[in-house]
Design goal:
- There is one protein chain.
- By secondary structure, the protein is an alpha+beta fold.
- Among the domains are: 32-119, no CATH class; 234-374 and 738-786, no CATH class; 427-691, Jelly Rolls, CATH 2.60.120.200; 888-899 and 921-959 and 976-1089, no CATH class.
- Strands 2, 3, 5, 6, 8, 13, 14, 15 and 18 form a nine-stranded antiparallel sheet that branches. It has an eight-stranded antiparallel sheet with strand order 4-7-17-9-10-11-12-16, with no helix packed on it.
- α33 (988-1001) crosses α34.
- The longest helix is centred in the middle third of the chain and has 34 residues, at 380-413.
- The protein is globular and about 110 Å long.
- Residues 474-483 have a biased composition (Basic and acidic residues).
- Keywords: Coiled coil, Disulfide bond, Signal.
- Residues 474-504 are annotated as: Disordered.
- It holds the Pfam family PSCyt1.
- Residues 379-406 form a coiled coil.
Length: 1089
């Protein structure tokens, strides 16, 4: 082992001898470096008014580009301005509160005197192909190459590294850093024994290496390392904002854990998340990874503008990508050019175009449906069930086709029983407006429903008299008007449509409802239209206006103001649309007519659907003639009409909180339980006799064919219901045609959009790395750009983030900002060497972690001398080992693991651990579902799996500095507050863990041994004499107290759901519980040393 204290005088002597020829760090500081000495001054004090933001640049002066500033600099005016005492001339202006210090003035003057040399910002310069490795004195101290950079810097600073940490300290440190859990007593014992076998340095290094290799292969590695990435990815189990409903995004969390455990190379780790869906023959896991872009907050506030929130979603994706992957504050240029970094506003929107083209609405609804586009994630059992259902569907389709074939023979011998036109079968509903609105059942006809209800949201005066050319059911075969009441009774009595032979089309006096777009007519009890249900809707209407989208008919099982489910018939600028959706627009099928229907005239419009789950099964007719349509959407997953406790609402002229059929007139509406054939529709529209055809016979007449259709319908439903049971998660999926992207003035969704503001997909125009010429202009191309080994940011940002997870601070203290306002790296050469080494070795995360934790730098003792504390209070120079408070997850998991309570089950839906007080979810948000605490071992899962509700995170985790995960977070705050001690002493989870820990040590021979074992489980070491003295004294005091207050002892040990497994006297167990609580609160427990 190298003993630096023995050579300290030699190092100082050598430094003194060479000071005139080999400059020390301080000597080097005498040579001005633009990035280190000058740019921070210009960025902090000048760039806000004289930087990259052209729109807010004062006096046309730009100081961040030498070519634009040098004339003014050389003229001497800059020096005159910074020296001036005149408030009108002085720069920066006094009103800016950015006045230069005397030291800053001297630096700028010297820089100008030396020629005002500029340099590219360090983070924007390409990674060097090779980084020269220093050769410091006492190089044998170095175990890893990275140690050479650290030691070289320490020697320049005339500091010595600390001696190695005690083996047990290192073991606890590395186990917590690689798995988030403490070493077990068995692991500590095995480590001690392995070291004792041979004290040779080479052997000891091998023991350390074996420990690291074991930890890197443990499942806990991915579970622990995932936490920091999930912070950056803003992963949570709820949508956020006011409603903050729970979501189903936990499979993404499990994917991250598995990817880290499998050591997926970091370039692939990013590529899958950015564009896994675009990879050739993308797997389910690659598609799942793209949920990274979809786990942002979502709104469902009443009255939300869909496009506004879609734009917010895109902005969040850009922000997260920029911060987590590039280490840039891209959100700063959403409304204007970046004030400090060379990123114009136009570049921001060019980048946003990559994330702008998925088929989403921008909001989510109040049901349990998953925002689109989405991915189904079946279990193996569900996959088998779905496959079996599909096999049965193929059989049913074959049987139906065979039955149709055989029906041709029956059709050849079939003759109608009479010359009268037959009743059109399968009428489900008929609504007319010819009788008075007296709330009688005659206005709405349900031939097979006892629950007949009628609700009018329109006042009586909205029913108007009209002269309508049509076949009128009140015209009997002899041409006489039988009267409205008699017609309604006739419908009631026959159970069918009485469209008997008579005048084909005549102008008859009718009454129609005039719609204003805000109110309509609703009836309940109509069975849901869904993917497997064939139906026809016939409506006589008059479209007076030519306006954007309006709802004519809607059938859904529950109203929603932020999304849509079910089926609707809409009209947009005269074009009819028939749509069936679970979540519009991406989980839907829809068709639209090529030509608009005639305006301001009466027509019969019919929409039919054949139950095939294909958009081709949606057809539109005008006056009995099939209309040419185009397919808008053609995929529905799961049910379109989510089942609730009633059959659904059938709404005429309006839809919940949506634009109805404003200015339109509707005479009557009829619903049939099958897709009517062309002859039937022609008859309904014109009165023409129904022409017997094979299709008509099979659909309406032939019993075997109709029975085969029922079997086919049941098989179709079985497939849908097999999907319904599957978990589902939002993912990325490109639209067939890319959505245009525009520069949005001030970031507003409704800013003017034209060819001048339109942008193409691209990256940063002023960076040294252009978008690859051979890469597709999509997210996959963006992933190739960001993982290009020449990219100056990706490798540096990744290495810096990983370094920060092992040391108290990353090499760049602002991991979220590598731009001009960010901090300079403390060890720039080390950062560049590590980034280059990381990239050159296949972006291997585990290899990088292994290098760090096996380094001499990491193995140092963390104790600090008075000299070092004064010289380097934050350990920037790395002259001692890492020391920092454990994260919220580590503290809770440590307590669970040490106590033996932890359930190490991996993956799955989130669990709900103890929550203090009443139901905080409901108290903080009346629209939230109630908090349902888990039961059994689920209470003791790792904190990674605890439910994360954005507006009401678990209070104990927040107190311990966890983030709400509302936005991308690259580094958590680290605090040390009395509230944290109160949590550890009083929170149910920790009190129960202390009792379980006390129970686990009760089998030891005496109290001293029990205290030592509990101490070791929590701190990783034996308690020293002073600690033992205090803990034994505390135990004796508490035994006395609980002996006198047995009821209080019983209450203490009864806290928590886990049953007591010990027969020890309750007062003794309660006293040991208090001792374990005290140990749990020690600095030695909650800090990594």
């Amino acid at each position: 082992m190298v003993q630096f204290n023995m050579v300290r005088s030699f190092v100082v002597l050598v430094c003194g001898l060479v000071v005139c020829t080999v400059p020390s760090w301080h000597c080097l500081a005498e040579d001005l470096d633009f990035n280190r000495d000058v740019r921070p001054i210009l960025s902090d004090k000048c760039y806000f008014c004289h930087g990259p933001d052209e729109g807010h640049r004062e006096a046309g002066l730009r100081l961040d580009v030498r070519e634009e500033a040098i004339d003014l600099i050389e003229s001497g005016e800059v020096i005159d301005r910074i020296d001036s005492d005149d408030a009108d001339l002085q720069m920066p202006p006094p009103a800016s509160n950015l006045s230069l210090t005397e030291k800053e003035k001297r630096t700028l003057k010297r820089w100008i005197d030396e020629g005002a040399v500029y340099a590219d910002h360090w983070a924007f310069t390409p990674l060097p192909e090779t980084e020269a490795v220093p050769s410091p004195h006492e190089v044998e101290w170095c175990r890893e190459t990275l140690d050479r950079f650290v030691l070289s810097r320490l020697q320049r600073e005339e500091l010595l590294p600390n001696p190695p940490a005690a083996p047990r300290r290192w073991l606890r440190r590395v186990t917590l850093d690689l798995t988030g859990l403490p070493p077990t007593p068995a692991e500590m014992q095995a480590f001690d024994q392995a070291l004792a076998a041979d004290d040779h340095r080479g052997h000891q290094d091998e023991v350390y290496q074996a420990v690291v290799d074991r930890l890197l292969q443990s499942s806990g590695f991915g579970e622990h390392l995932a936490v920091s990435w999930l912070d950056a990815a803003r992963y949570a189990d709820s949508y956020g904002y006011q409603s903050d409903k729970l979501n189903t995004q936990w499979p993404y969390r499990d994917w991250v854990v598995e990817a880290l455990n499998q050591n997926l190379p970091y370039d692939q780790f990013l590529t899958w998340q950015l564009a896994g869906d675009l990879l050739p023959d993308a797997t389910r896991q690659q598609k799942l990874a793209t949920a990274f872009n979809r786990i942002h907050r979502l709104n469902n506030e009443g009255g939300a503008v869909f496009e506004e929130w879609r734009i917010e979603n895109v902005a969040d994706r850009v922000h997260t990508f920029g911060t987590a992957v590039l280490g840039l504050t891209l959100e700063c240029c959403r409304c204007h050019d970046h004030k400090y970094d060379p990123i114009p506003m136009r570049d921001y929107y060019s980048l946003s175009a990559f994330f702008n083209s998925i088929d989403e609405s921008g909001v989510y609804d109040r049901t349990e449906k998953v925002p689109c586009p989405s991915l189904l994630l079946p279990t193996a059992e569900q996959e088998a069930t779905l496959q079996a259902a599909r096999d049965q569907l193929r059989i049913a389709e074959q049987q139906y086709a065979a039955t149709l074939k055989r029906s041709e023979q029956r059709f050849a011998s079939w003759k109608p029983e009479s010359d009268d036109q037959p009743t059109i079968a399968d009428l489900r509903l008929a609504i007319g407006f010819d009788v008075d609105f007296d709330n009688t059942i005659k206005d709405v006809y349900h031939p097979s429903q006892s629950d007949r209800s009628w609700t009018s949201m329109s006042p009586l005066q909205d029913v108007v008299d009209c002269s309508i050319p049509r076949l009128d059911p009140r015209i009997a075969s002899d041409g006489k008007d039988v009267g409205a009441d008699q017609a309604a009774d006739s419908l009631d009595n026959t159970g069918g449509d009485q469209s008997n032979a008579g005048p084909a089309r005549i102008d008859v006096p009718r009454r129609a409802i005039a719609l204003d777009g805000e109110r309509g007519v609703t009836t309940h009890g109509v069975p849901s239209f869904d993917r497997w249900t064939a139906f026809s809707v016939v409506v006589t209407l008059r479209d007076v206006q030519r306006t954007p989208y309006r709802s004519v008919i809607a059938h859904h099982t529950r109203g929603t103001d932020c999304g849509y489910n079910g089926w609707d018939l809409t009209i947009e600028n005269g074009h009819l649309e028939s749509r069936m959706a679970r979540v519009w627009p991406g989980n839907a099928m829809a068709v639209r007519t090529i030509a608009p229907i005639p305006a301001d005239s009466w027509h019969q419009v019919t929409a039919t659907y054949d139950g095939s789950s294909r958009a081709a099964g949606l057809r539109l007719y005008l006056d009995g003639e099939l209309l040419e349509t185009e397919i808008l959407r053609d995929r529905v997953k799961k049910q379109a009409n989510v089942v609730v406790d009633h059959g659904g609402e059938f709404v005429v002229g309006q839809r919940f909180r949506d634009r109805g059929f404003a200015g339109g007139l509707i005479d009557d509406v009829r619903v049939y339980d099958r897709a009517l054939t062309a002859p039937e529709l022609k008859h309904l529209a014109t009165g023409a006799p129904i022409r017997p055809t094979k299709d008509y016979f099979a659909s309406a007449i032939d019993p075997p064919s109709r029975e085969a259709m029922q079997v086919l319908t049941a098989a179709r439903k079985a497939v849908v219901m097999a999907e319904e049971a599957m978990n589902e998660i939002p993912i990325m999926e490109e639209m067939q045609h890319a959505r245009p992207a525009y520069v949005l003035a001030r970031g507003q969704y409704d800013a003017p959009k034209n060819e001048d503001t339109r942008v193409d997909r691209d990256t940063f125009s002023q960076f040294g790395l252009p978008f690859p010429d051979d890469a597709p202009r999509d997210r996959l191309g963006l992933a190739r750009w960001v993982t290009d080994p020449r990219n100056p940011l990706t490798g540096r940002v990744a290495v810096n983030r990983l370094w920060g997870s092992f040391f108290a601070s990353p090499l760049v203290a602002t991991p979220e900002n590598f731009g001009l306002q960010g901090e300079l790296p403390t060890h720039p050469e080390l950062l560049d060497w590590m980034a280059r080494d990381f990239v050159d070795h296949g972006w291997d995360v585990k290899r990088l972690c292994r290098q760090i934790v096996l380094s001499s730098t990491y193995r140092q003792d963390s104790r600090v001398s008075a000299e070092k504390l004064q010289r380097d209070p934050d350990n920037v120079l790395l002259a001692r080992g890492p020391s920092n408070r454990l994260s919220a997850e580590q503290i809770r998991d440590l307590a669970l693991a040490a106590s033996g309570l932890m359930d190490k089950q991996q993956g799955g839906p989130p669990v709900s651990p103890y929550q203090p007080g009443a139901d905080l979810w409901r108290e903080s948000n009346g629209m939230s579902p109630p908090y349902q605490q888990s039961v059994g071992t689920a209470l003791y899962r790792r904190s990674l799996y605890s439910v994360w509700k954005r507006t009401a995170p678990l209070p104990n985790m927040l107190a311990l500095d966890a983030t709400t995960r509302e936005v991308c977070t690259m580094e958590r705050s680290r605090t040390n507050t009395p509230l944290q001690a109160l949590v550890l002493m009083n929170d149910v989870q920790f009190v129960e863990a202390a009792r379980a820990l006390a129970e686990s040590v009760m089998g030891e021979s005496d109290d001293m041994a029990r205290i030592q074992l509990a101490f070791a489980k929590l701190t990783g070491r034996r308690a020293d004499e002073n600690e033992v003295t205090h803990l034994v004294s505390l135990l004796e005091q508490e035994q006395t107290y609980f002996g006198e207050h047995p009821q209080r002892a019983a209450e203490l040990v009864a806290i928590g759901q886990s049953p007591s497994s010990q027969d020890a006297p309750v007062p003794h167990l309660a006293a040991m519980t208090i001792v374990c609580q005290a140990i749990m609160n020690l600095d030695a427990t909650v800090w990594k040393r």
